[in-house]
Write a structure and sequence with these properties.
The chain is mostly helical and 425 residues long. It is built from 16 helices and no strands.
Length: 425
C-alpha cells in the first residue's frame, strides 16, 4: 500500500471509528429504552421496523445524492440528520410519547443512516483505485471491521454502564455530541478523490438516470441480484437478533435493571467483530471462492441461532452469541469485497445503497413479526425461528455462485468486474 492509499485508509478508518462509536452508545440499551418509554415488545420492534422502513424509503435517493453531489456531502448531511433525530428520540422518551411519534422519528433516524450507507464505502473504493492500490479489498474492509468492533466495544459497554449509573437517556445525548464532532472531522479531512460528482441542473431526471443505471448494474446483473435477494433474510434476522438479545440476556441473568449486562452483550458482539475482521483476509486466502465463505457463514449462523433459542443458561447463551457474531463478522468483509468487485464506479454508491435497502426491507418484516412472536411465545422461540428464516438466504447465495462471476475468485482490485461477463469496470 503506497502513501496515498495509506492516507485514504486512515481517513476511512477514522470516519468508521467515530461513526460507530457514536451509534453504539445506544446499541446495548435501545430495546430497553423503548420498553422503558412504555412500548410493548411489538411496538418496540415495530418502531425499529419504521427505522428500517426509513432506510428503505431513502436509500436510493440518498445514494443518488452521493453519486450526484458527492460522497462528502452525503456524509455531512448524515451526521446532522442523525444527530437531530437522535435528540428527538430522547425528547420522546422524556415525554412518554405515543407510538405514532416514535414511528415518525424512527423514519427520520433511518434517513440519517442512509446518507452513510453506500457513500463512505464507495468513497473508499474509488479513492483507493485512484491512489493505485491493487491489493485485496478484504484486507481494508477487515481492518475497518476491526476498528468498528473496537469502537462498538467501547461505545456499547460504556452506554450500558452510563445508563445504569445515570438513566437510559444519557447515552442518546452522548451520541448527539459525537456525531456533531464527526461533522467537523469529515468537513476537514474528507474529499472526493477518484470520483467527480455529476451535478445535473435537472435533479429528477438525474435521479432517474442514476437509478436506471444502478438497476442495470445491480438487479439486472445476476450474481449481484442474488446477493441482494439474500440480504432481506440475513440482514433482517441480524437486526432483530442483535436487539432481542438485550432483554433476553437480562431475562436469563435474572435482573431486569442490569443494563450493563445488555451493554456487555453488545460489547461481546463488538469484540467478535474485531477478531472476525482480523480473520477475514486469512479465511479468504484459504478459500478459493468468496461465495463459499458466504454460504458457510449464513448456514452456521442459522444453526447457532436455533441453539441460542434452546438454551436457558446465561453463560452458554453468551458463548453462542460470541460464535454467532464471530462467524457473521468473518463473512462481512468478504461480502463487501465480492459486491464491490462487480459494481462500476459511477453508480457504486447507489448500488450499495440499493443493497442496503434490500437488507432493510427484511428488517421491516422480520422485526415486528419476531417481536410479536416474543410477546406470545417468548424470546427463545423467536430466536430459533430467526435461525430458520436466515437459512432462506442460502439458496440465493448458491445461485450467485453458479453465475461464476470473476469477482468470486478475484484477489485484487484489478479484478473488478461490472457485468456478468466480467468486463472491466
Amino acid at each position: 500500500m503506497n502513501a496515498a492509499a495509506r492516507k485514504i485508509q486512515r481517513i476511512y478508518l477514522t470516519l468508521t471509528l467515530g461513526n460507530t462509536l457514536a451509534a453504539s452508545f445506544i446499541w446495548g440499551i435501545n430495546t430497553l429504552f423503548l420498553l422503558d418509554a412504555g412500548l410493548s415488545n411489538l411496538e418496540a420492534f415495530a418502531a425499529n421496523a419504521f427505522f428500517t422502513a426509513g432506510m428503505v424509503l431513502f436509500e436510493v435517493p440518498t445514494g443518488v445524492i452521493a453519486d450526484g453531489w458527492g460522497r462528502r456531502v452525503s456524509f455531512l448531511l448524515g451526521t446532522v440528520t442523525l444527530a437531530a433525530s437522535t435528540y428527538l428520540y430522547y425528547l420522546l422518551w422524556q415525554l412518554s410519547a405515543p407510538f405514532w411519534a416514535w414511528a415518525v422519528v424512527s423514519v427520520l433516524l433511518g434517513l440519517g443512516f442512509t446518507f452513510f450507507s453506500g457513500a463512505v464505502e464507495a468513497w473508499l473504493v474509488d479513492a483507493l483505485r485512484f491512489s493505485g492500490y491493487d491489493g485485496e479489498l478484504e484486507a481494508v474492509f477487515g481492518r475497518a471491521l476491526m476498528v468498528s468492533g473496537v469502537a462498538m466495544l467501547v461505545g456499547s459497554t460504556a452506554g450500558g454502564v452510563i445508563a445504569q449509573a445515570t438513566d437510559l437517556g444519557v447515552p442518546f445525548l452522548l451520541r448527539v455530541g459525537v456525531l456533531l464532532a464527526m461533522f467537523g472531522v469529515a468537513f476537514w479531512l474528507m474529499r472526493d478523490v477518484g470520483f467527480t460528482p455529476e451535478r445535473s441542473p435537472h435533479p429528477l431526471k438525474a435521479s432517474r438516470d442514476v437509478l436506471s443505471a444502478s438497476i442495470d448494474n445491480g438487479l439486472k446483473n445476476p450474481p449481484v441480484r442474488y446477493i441482494m435477494l439474500a440480504a432481506p433474510f440475513s440482514a433482517g434476522v441480524g437486526i432483530y437478533v442483535f436487539y432481542a438479545l438485550q432483554p433476553y440476556l437480562l431475562e436469563l441473568f435474572g435482573d431486569p435493571r442490569a443494563y450493563s449486562v445488555a451493554g456487555l452483550a453488545a460489547g461481546i458482539v463488538a469484540g467478535a467483530q474485531v477478531v472476525g475482521g482480523w480473520l477475514a483476509p486469512m479465511v479468504r486466502r484459504l478459500v478459493r471462492k468468496r461465495t463459499t465463505v458466504l454460504v458457510a457463514s449464513s448456514s452456521m449462523g442459522a444453526l447457532i441461532l436455533v441453539a441460542l433459542g434452546v438454551t436457558r443458561v446465561f453463560w452458554v447463551a453468551l458463548l453462542l452469541l460470541v460464535l454467532w457474531a464471530l462467524i457473521s463478522a468473518a463473512g462481512t468483509p468478504v461480502r463487501q469485497a465480492y459486491l464491490n468487485d462487480m459494481i462500476a464506479s459511477k453508480q457504486r454508491a447507489t448500488v450499495l445503497s440499493f443493497d442496503s435497502l434490500m437488507g432493510s426491507s427484511g428488517g421491516i418484516v422480520v422485526q415486528p413479526l419476531m417481536g410479536r412472536a416474543a410477546d406470545v411465545y417468548g424470546y427463545p422461540l423467536s430466536l430459533a425461528i430467526s435461525g430458520v428464516i436466515e437459512l432462506f438466504a442460502v439458496p440465493f447465495l448458491l445461485a450467485s455462485r453458479r453465475r461464476r462471476s470473476p469477482a468470486d475468485t478475484a484477489t485484487t482490485e484489478a479484478g473488478t468486474a461490472s457485468t456478468e461477463t466480467g468486463t472491466p469496470a
